[in-house]
């Protein structure tokens, strides 16, 4: 329509699925995304009931996808948005924190 500004969506979609140590999809897990050159995370999402997430970001830079869960090691995946595609799919398998006797970390 004439006179109505249109909002364009950013050009790159990061899609992923988070799995637990038993290879089961994991809902409700926190996912944070930032440009690889930055310290602060700009985008945040949580996995849905099938362990999936999707975040739309500006095309161009490399991104770091951080997946966090209590009692599990943080998992960081690098995504390159300059490969000519308009999306990239990632799969993240979480690993429990290693604990020694009496629950103490080694």
Description:
- The protein is an all-beta fold.
- The chain has a single domain, classed as Immunoglobulin-like.
- It has no helices and seven strands.
- It has strands at residues 12-19, 30-35, 43-46, 52-57, 62-68, 75-80, 87-93.
- Strands 3-2-5-6 form a four-stranded antiparallel sheet, with no helix packed on it. Strands 4-1-7 form a three-stranded mixed sheet, with no helix packed on it.
- The termini are far apart.
Note poorly predicted spans.
none
N→C terminal distance: 63 Å
The proportion of residues in beta strands is: 35-45%
The count of β-strands is 7
Helix/strand order, N-terminal first: EEEEEEE
Alpha-beta content class: mainly beta
Number of helices: 0
Write out the strand line-up for the largest beta sheet, numbering strands in chain order: 3-2-5-6
Number of domains: 1
Per CATH, the class reads Mainly Beta
CATH level 3 topology: Immunoglobulin-like
Name the CATH homologous superfamily: Carboxypeptidase-like, regulatory domain
Radius of gyration: 17 Å
CATH architecture: Sandwich
What is the overall pLDDT average?
88
User: What is the helix fraction of residues, given as a range?
Assistant: under 10%
Shape: globular
Main sheet characteristics: 4 strands, antiparallel
How is the topology of this model organized?
Layout lengths: L11 E8 L10 E6 L7 E4 L5 E6 L4 E7 L6 E6 L6 E7 L13
Parallel strand pairs: 1-7
Antiparallel strand pairs: 1-4, 2-3, 2-5, 5-6
Relevant terms:
globular; single chain; three-stranded mixed β-sheet; mainly beta; 0% helix; Immunoglobulin-like; 106 residues; four-stranded antiparallel β-sheet
